[in-house]
Task: structure prediction
Amino acid sequence: MTHSSTSNVGGDLRIAAATCVKNEGPFLLEWIAFNRVIGVTDHLFYSNDCTDGTAELLDALAEAGICEHLPNPAEGRNYQMEALKAAKVHPMVKDADWVWIADVDEFLNIHVGDGTISDLIDACDDPQAISATFQFFANDGIEDFEDRPIIEQFTKSHNPDIWTDQTAIEVKTLMRQDFPLKYFGAHRPFFRDKLPEAKRPVWTDCSGRKVQHRFLVAANPRRIRKFPASGARDFATLNHYALRSLDSYLVKNDRGDVNRENRNFDDTYWRERNDDAYEDTSIQKYLPRLNAEIERLKALPNVAALHDDCVTKHREAAARLMQDEDYVALREQLLSAPKISPVEIRLNDILDEQSS
Result:
């Protein structure tokens, strides 16, 4: 097994990012380049059922030593958890000093030092795990897909302390190699059963504060992957671009996220993440380094051409959907949807009734 080539950020830590993908071709170079800028040295991708050139682009990047690309091992439909189970024993992950489990639409925005993972670890006093709170970025009214950095295009989000009616917001987690791991969850690792209290891992939020006890021990099933966001992001935030452009959101739905059985589309997911009341451009400090790293990746054999092919197929998929009256209707539904979540509307209605 050969490790990927190191990023352009200095430091001796080996940091492995593991993820699973389906039809993320146009967005791969930005995500890999961004991770390399913040100090990720190795990338492990598991892919399944890709039709947009994702697999071919990852193969070219793997040939150049940038990542390792494997078929998703899932035999059923539990793609993410089966991939994480395989990642746990993969040499790239086992040899890493730290492991970062995240998706291709998630970017770790570090606010200290030079904005690297090493800086974040130092700021948190080198714990065994660091959980970063999500900040969901809205669509910003952007309809057309553009082949330029997501972190440049989308700058609006909810109040970072409150998402819909929730003050406890989901996290993703960096894990140090000596974490007493039982298994990876998509949002956080879980440690071994009946672990003595003295051997439980030192685990912080992104302000260097120890996470709450009930989160640490996964005592509350409803909060095993989230905790209060207020005060948790002094050193880093996890920017989550779940919507991107309207074109890209429709293409993502077409790959299987929307139940079209009754030709009735549920816009709840969109509306929960399309609150654009707050502007945050802090991640754009990375843009010069990001763009330079993207160009370095594109200079590798076949990578630029395969990226362009992914972009073309993404645009073709978006155009094809506009020949389907159901997707035309969904597009109009999303364009006219309130920029407030259904649960907030219900709460407002209750308050109005109580005050009348």
